[in-house]
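pipeline stage [seq->struct] | target=histidinol-phosphate transaminase | organism=Panacibacter ginsenosidivorans | residues=339
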Amino acid sequence: MKTNKKIIKLSANENFYGCSPLVQDAIKKYRWNDIHLYPDFLQASLKEQLADKFQVCAQNILLGMGTIGIIESIIRFLVKPGEEIITLERSFVAYWQLSQTHERKCNFAALTNFTCDINNILSCINNKTSVIFIANPNNPTGTIIPHDDLKNLLENISPKIFVVVDEAYNEYVTDPSYPDSLKLLAEFPNFIILRSFSKIYGLAGLRIGYGIAHEKVAAVLEQKRLPFSINSVASVAAIASLDDEAFIMSCKEKNETERAFLFSQLKKSGYSVLPTQANFIYLYFDNEAEKKMAYNRLYENGLQVCDLKSFHQDRSLRMVVADRTINDIIVYLLAKNKM
């Protein structure tokens, strides 16, 4: 399908407000005459800043080319041939895609009302289970698993099974029941936290993510990380982004306001929309034809959202929470679609 309008991309959950001005300044001031030099392999400065922010040791920090880089390392090095992983049926596609790449079986735990249900995860566990991946908030639904449920899961599985919680959107969460992951990490050595600079920090194009894990686990994954996989510009940008708490808070507050607006207005128009804790909205439809009509209406008017059929999830769309100008257009177009 073609359109003559300039396309506004709302399909990849990127920060609609870009990155911090401090990041832009840091990149401008970067020593470009040193671009011929390899980056710091250990990334000591970035690790120290992350460790200070989260009050952990630098040895607890692991880095990757986005969280996908760390997910790939976990599947490759923590899941042995013949072992299996578990993830949710409607969740981040990288888990099962990378399990296929490395020829590891991926089992899917069903959601209950589009939300993670630990009983369904527990029923999937067998003697081959090695790693459980949980996106929290879940992508694409935006729903969360609360602290008590996550702790219950950790208490009821073998300590030999790793639980990897992907918190790429954690900075957007406002629900007080959201897990205190660092507290859980202190209690459970088989717990791994993944976080990203691609979302609220606005560095998706630089491909950098990080994790927090037990020192021994982090050491294994860091030793296996590809040499020089974190480029120098990404490192400089990440460090600068951590210095601008005001920018992060501003993005969070604007997202919370606009998220509530989109949710209420789309519900009012008769759409099935989930309450989300992320920076995106998840719409589900009774049939493919209705979904396609909504997608086309937006695209023809220059708004590109994500048709989740490309991720083997039919009858659903996902769109970034934008600013009020764009959100008003979305509400108008989709309300018109219901007439």
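stage status: PASS
auto-comment: The radius of gyration is 20 Å. Residues 8-18+246-337 form a domain with the Aspartate Aminotransferase, domain 1 fold (CATH 3.90.1150.10).
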